[in-house]
């Protein structure tokens, strides 16, 4: 019992450390998908009791950034479109509330899809293929998608409580995405 508890605590601590690594790697902003991909691979290796440390994380990050920065750029473009959408809603255009709600739901779908793709990333994987498959899983598994959205709620609540807590909480989002994807393959 005691060894099992310590193993679970070690996994929790590894998630927190991974969150800090993700936050540091995502500072250029367009590297956010690559940082989550490297973080998910790190956690996957840790859970498999394989060598997993800073060197492996940075090697995965370098590999993921090669094409992942384009995914990050597209994500920020989507966010800019959502902010424009919100500006139109606030302007009082007819049907603006409906368009705003659709925009927010679309943003959640895009974010969850990106995280699901990042959780399945591996060296040499095509981001386009990962994203295409992740869209299907996002729409077919609403419960899993909700788990990932709730992970983001933890990050927001942590940031609201104390901004520095948001960085380690990012590891919880990576762990949630990894768990949802593992659950999907186990079923």
From TrEMBL:
Tree of life domain: Bacteria
Transmembrane segments: 69-89, 96-119, 146-179
Record key words, sorted: Membrane, Transmembrane, Transmembrane helix
Name of this protein: Membrane protein YesL
Species in which this protein is naturally found: Streptomyces durmitorensis
